[in-house]
Write a structure and sequence with these properties.
Elements lengths: L4 E4 L10 H7 L5 H16 L5 H8 L3 H13 L3 E5 L5 E6 L58 H8 L2 H14 L5 H13 L4 H13 L5 H13 L5 H7 L1 H14 L7 H13 L4 H13 L5 H13 L5 H17 L22 H18 L1
Parallel strand pairs: 1-3
Antiparallel strand pairs: 2-3
Helix pairs in contact: 2-4, 3-4, 4-16, 6-8, 7-9, 8-9, 8-10, 11-13, 13-14
């Protein structure tokens, strides 16, 4: 396969990461996509040519995984593909970053400045309360979102003695893996004191966000405000709202014969299938059944099946049947015996041996899908 070069738009050589990337782009991105972007920044500094296969080998993943990450960052104008006049891919340019037009303003220095101020000097970025438009029925207006407020040292000391707040912090540490920073603590305090979430509800909120692999304090606050506006005031109400998500987890576990708690990696896969790929439960269960039939009960193998279906624009079981029939017809057309529908190799790089030209064509096809969709 031909090698490609990675350069920066302004020709500089450095491995520094833009604060715009950290503040606006990194938080919501898949962690694997972030790692690949950081690796490309490092390669750009080295100034050496590299192939997609080399990058895939470095991360012990497939070429499809690398192409998917590149497509994600190209779509957000963070990377740019460079072609020659023959429409041949020459390289990838790392773009200069700017805040997205629709992005919300981050807190100054992402809250790091608060670490160097006394408690009484902490300033919150929201200067006035956000008033949400009233509903069309005047008798049932939406509640006003409370304004964040600063706390005096004596108030904070009193709050620290609150057993409920102590349990909330412990829940955060368990699911987020670290003690809350001052900014994160203030977010928990805002939800607990000003949105008036009972401790049980706030603890469930943290658990729910962690199950979605979104543990940033901004994301937790957004979900909290959404629940607040929809009148969710108890953990029972919240669990009813999220029942569909947990029902999917239970259905997958049952189909695969799992009696244990799903791991964070497995939950991340499910989150991708449900939210990124927007698959209905019947499609996901069909993939699980096919994996079981092949005696390959692994989330990685199931992810390969679903990724293939996603890239084939599958929306329903009928679309899957259409793909199966196409495969049967292709087998017949090539004169190969047997009419049994077999699963194509999915997302397991050890299952396929690419030659150089096939890899080149595959990569170009993947990254050019963006231009075809625009």
């Amino acid at each position: 396969m031909k090698t490609i070069t990675i350069t920066s738009e302004n020709g500089e050589t450095f491995s520094s990461i833009s604060n715009f990337f950290i503040d606006y782009y990194m938080t919501e991105a898949n962690g694997e996509f972030v790692k690949i972007y950081l690796y490309m920044v490092r390669l750009q500094e080295a100034g050496q040519s590299i192939s997609i296969q080399d990058i895939a080998d470095h991360f012990q993943c497939t070429q499809k995984d690398i192409c998917r990450a590149i497509r994600y960052w190209v779509d957000r104008n963070i990377l740019r593909l460079e072609y020659n006049q023959k429409n041949e891919l020459l390289g990838i340019t790392i773009m200069s970053l700017t805040p997205p037009e629709s992005g919300e303003e981050p807190e100054a220095n992402s809250g790091l400045d608060l670490l160097h101020q006394p408690v009484s000097a902490k300033v919150y970025p929201i200067s006035q309360s956000k008033k949400v438009a009233s509903s069309t029925k005047e008798e049932n207006p939406l509640p006003e979102i409370p304004e964040k407020k600063a706390y005096s040292p004596s108030q904070l000391r009193a709050i620290e003695q609150d057993k409920n707040m102590e349990n909330i912090v412990y829940q955060f540490e368990m699911y987020c893996g670290h003690t809350p920073t001052p900014t994160e603590y203030n977010t928990l305090l805002y939800i607990y004191e000003q949105l008036m979430f009972p401790a049980e509800l706030l603890e469930y909120l943290i658990e729910y966000c962690a199950s979605l692999e979104h543990t940033s304090h901004r994301y937790i606050e957004k979900v909290a405000i959404d629940w607040y506006l929809r009148g969710i005031r108890t953990a029972k109400q919240a669990k009813q709202e999220t029942a569909a998500y947990h029902a999917l987890n239970a259905a997958i576990s049952k189909e695969l014969g799992l009696s244990r708690v799903l791991t964070p990696t497995e939950l991340r896969y499910i989150n991708t299938w449900k939210n990124d790929y927007a698959f209905q439960q019947d499609v996901i269960i069909e993939a699980c059944q096919r994996a079981s039939a092949d005696n390959k009960i692994s989330f990685r193998y199931i992810n390969g099946i679903l990724t293939n279906w996603y890239e084939s624009h599958v929306k329903s079981l009928e679309d899957i049947q259409r793909l199966d029939q196409q495969y049967i017809n292709q087998k017949k057309a090539t004169g190969k015996s047997g009419s049994k529908v077999q699963n194509l190799p999915f997302n397991d790089f050890s299952q396929r041996d690419y030659d150089n030209q096939e890899l080149e064509n595959f990569f170009i096809k993947e990254v050019q899908k963006l231009s075809e969709q625009s």
